[in-house]
Amino acid sequence: MHEFRYERPATVAEAIRAVAHDPEADFLAGGTTEVDLMKDGVFHPDLLVDITRLPLRGVRRDGTMLQVGALTTMEELASDRTLMERAPFVVEALLRGASVQLRNMATIGGNLLQRTRCRYFRDPAVPACNKREPGSGCEAVNSVARMHAILGASPACIALHASDLAVALVALDAVVHIQSEEGERLVPLTQFYLMPGETPDRENVLRHGELITAVDIPLPPEGTRSIYLKIRDRASYEFALASAAIAVIMDGPVIKEARVAMGGVGTIPWRGFEAEEVLREAPATPDTFRSAADGTIRDPFIVPGTAFKVELAKRTLIRALTEVTS
Amino acid sequence: MRVNVTVNGAPMTADDVWPGESLLYVLRERLGLPGAKNACEQGECGSCTVYLDGLPVCACLVAAGQAEGREVLTVEGLASGEELDPVQEAFVECGAVQCGFCTPGLIVQAHSLIAGHDGVPADAEIREHLAGNLCRCTGYEKILDAVRLAARRKAGS
Fold this sequence. Notes:
The complex is a heterodimer.
Chain A: E1 5-7, H1 12-20, E2 25-28, H2 34-39, E3 47-50, E4 59-62, E5 65-69, H3 74-78, H4 81-86, H5 88-95, H6 100-105, H7 108-112, H8 139-142, H9 165-171, E6 175-180, E7 183-188, E8 211-218, E9 225-231, E10 242-251, E11 254-263, E12 270-271, H10 273-279, E13 282-283, H11 286-296, H12 308-325
Parallel strand pairs in A: 1-3, 2-3
Antiparallel strand pairs in A: 4-5, 5-8, 6-7, 6-8, 9-10, 10-11, 11-12, 11-13
Chain B: E1 3-7, E2 10-14, H1 23-30, E3 49-52, E4 55-58, E5 71-73, H2 86-94, H3 103-115, H4 123-129, H5 141-155
Parallel strand pairs in B: 1-5
Antiparallel strand pairs in B: 1-2, 3-4, 3-5
InterPro entries (chain A): CO_DH_flav_C, CO_DH_flav_C_dom_sf, Diverse_Substr_Oxidored, FAD-bd_PCMH, FAD-bd_PCMH-like_sf, FAD-bd_PCMH_sub1, FAD-bd_PCMH_sub2, Mopterin_DH_FAD-bd
Organism (chain A): Herbidospora galbida
GO molecular function, one term (chain A): FAD binding
């Protein structure tokens, strides 16, 4: 592991200042992604600013919204009673996202910033990775790929966004609080992540020295039904091949309102706006669900190893819609 | 740097710790507690599971500095003297140990399940709770037997 200094400032302002003034510095929260990637030599900060003891922890109800401190752990948020009652699919996404041990350390802010599981990104011995070394190419496009993206992908990068939580949160229009030396700004999670385009190394709108301090989760109206369906290679503790986060309000057999997002398919957590339009005021029938699926999985970028995901993703969405509306 | 940590109830100090060391490394190499095992080093196998402030975590992914001033309970701290913890006893009785490398992590993780449970957890719950602990020998059946036995004894049935 690269040599680095470790600091544990006492306030949010000091932590932000420490990182902002050192281009090679990084924040350290739960560490479950970051420490791992430092061991692998993918990350090599010269200064780690430990923020785990800052007062950014806890879940607070604010009217029709939950405000979640960025350092709240996955396990803490998963045991929030309001969330369980009003948006159980967020809890499902959290519980299916990692083992107990990881959920006890991993934070909500860190979860949103977790890096891709693309094996070529995570192995510095592989020279071509535009995400790790801008301009170096993409080994995944030319070699064996499977756990990779088909939406938002391009010849420059097919790395998948691996978070389950983020999928449920983009469906709910969660909002990220971002603090810097200049002040605070709020960014909707649907606008937080960046498509790889020609700059796969830039994954989100955060600038160096900016810190996520909280996430607002709007609670869906009472009576909303929701589901997080995760399809994977084994029954537990595995990343998604395809997943669907859906919240619907039903009026008899008709879908009044729908929120749709998919994981396991996109370079970013994939909001299904097209599917939502198809579903709104539509009867809950197999034809409706198939149209919603076709609308979501449009113009996929596939390589031989990911071709199977096109139909798998559609079937995942159809099954989730069938279950949540019946 | 210096790291002060309470381990198994006793305050301990490790000096000359490099910031890149993990809590696992500090426990094993500096504090003489080799119970928690070093296997995948990626948080995938659970062999290094210890309690940190009462919650099971993968010690391999905890940076040494993050443990400063906190309480750690390792597998060495579960028994009282020569008397094994009921979870350890159940593992022995059920033959839930083969090569033994995953065992310390599984014991701590199973301990955390039973400690937070009044009755006997359903199999699905046991499997989910132990999902982050990999065993390459047993096929898990004997481990499930041991967890059920320990839970039954604690529930008094």
